[in-house]
Amino acid sequence: MKTRKILMSFLAIFFVVALNSCEDDKDDVKEMKPETARVEFRNATQEINVDLDKMMNTVSMQSMSYLSDLLDADWEKKLKVSLFQSGKVHLAKVRDNFRPDTSGNRDEIEMGDYGVYTFNFVYNEFQLTETSTTLLKIIYPASEQAHAIKQNNAEFLLNNLEYTEISYTETWWDYWDEKWVTETYEELVATNADISLSVDGNIELSGNYHSVITENGNPTSMNASLTSNPYQFNAAFGGSGTNYTATQSLKEDNKELMGYSLNVTYSADMIDVIKLSGYYSVSPLKVQGSMNYAAIEERTTMMIDDATTADINYLNTQLDMDLYHSVLNTKLGDVEFRLFVDTEYDETYPELAVVYSDGTYEWLFEVLGENGSFKKVKQRK
């Protein structure tokens, strides 16, 4: 749970998905002229999209995407959490959504066994075909073509499952009612799993996950890896006291497509993130720097949609972040807050912008889309 909070909050600031990378010495990097930086920023985002499209067209990603299509929106979200989010893997909820009770509901199911779920072409849904206490196996058609000929030719497997029950409280901003909402949750969280995906009898993806989690959901250590040739994914989290490090890398052969190394400082009670520093890159873009996260969160919570210039000035004293082009080894600009005025809704709030060497700037969301918006991707506290 805590790792998700770290990553989502930090990546919201660090461009989420749109931003190889070792730490660069800022003094050795030249700053690009504004007119050139604007062009290279857009060229880099196009290169990122090409790389991601290429990865999503592999057999494993296409198969996983089709599995999501067979499931509802909640299922897709939980399945992605199970596979890729390092702190909190909702395997119990993944299982529960596959297994309706006798009334047809999908949320009133006893915990304990995971089992084998097979896609039934007659009813067009998954059915529990075998019980288990150690694995979750999903047998399904890997594509529209396989579905058309009623062939379950894919098998997704989470094996050697171990889990623990946690209780935690989260506070999040309800945009509909425009207020903070605090809720307490109890759930099972996986601490160990071996992962594989086969299509037509060929192993297309394999990996493993292991974590140590306290009873309130704080991971004290985590290691995860996935391989789907030519891609390799690795993630780790660990530390002691109030100081932890989170790392992640996604490579295509020897090229790092995405990576980060974040130093995290918690409050003494381990509830709040106080400071974050490090880098986050999606080649060839990299953001590097630090932020006083608790101070930024406290100020933005107070202002909501009525920010002032004074608020923006304060926020910018709490972060020091630069945007680099790692291949050209040049600095494109600074990452800072600017006051965004929404005339349609009569709101003012902080938005992230790239500020070029001549003081001009442009909004991240105008280049990166919604994922570049600080407001739209601001997650639970």
Nutshell version of this structure?
With 381 residues, the protein is an alpha+beta fold. The protein is built from nine helices and 17 strands. Strand 14 (319-325) and strand 15 form a beta hairpin.
Task: Return residue spans where pLDDT drops below 50 for at least 5 consecutive residues.
Answer: 1-26, 73-113
Structural class: alpha+beta
> Major sheet: size, sense and barrel closure?
17 strands, mixed
Morphology call: globular
What count of domains describes the coordinates? 1
Question: Which H/E pattern describes the elements?
Answer: HEHHHHEEEHEEEEEEEEEHHEEEEH
Strand share of the residues? 35-45%
Write down the oligomeric state.
single chain
Number of helical segments? Answer: 9
* Helical content (DSSP H or I, runs of 4+): 10-25%
Cα separation of the termini: 12 Å
Could you tell me the radius of gyration in angstroms?
22 Å
Mean pLDDT: 77
Q: Please provide the count of β strands.
A: 17
What report would you give on this structure?
A hairpin with a 2-residue loop joins strand 12 (273-282) and strand 13 (285-291). The chain is built from nine helices and 17 strands. It is globular, with a radius of gyration of 22 Å. The longest helix is centred in the first third of the chain and has 23 residues, at 34-56. The protein has helices spanning 2-13, 34-56, 59-69, 73-84, 91-98, 144-148, 293-303, 309-316, 364-368, and strands at 30-31, 115-120, 125-130, 136-140, 154-174, 179-199, 202-213, 219-228, 231-240, 243-252, 255-266, 273-282, 285-291, 319-325, 330-342, 347-355, 361-363. The protein has one domain (2-372).
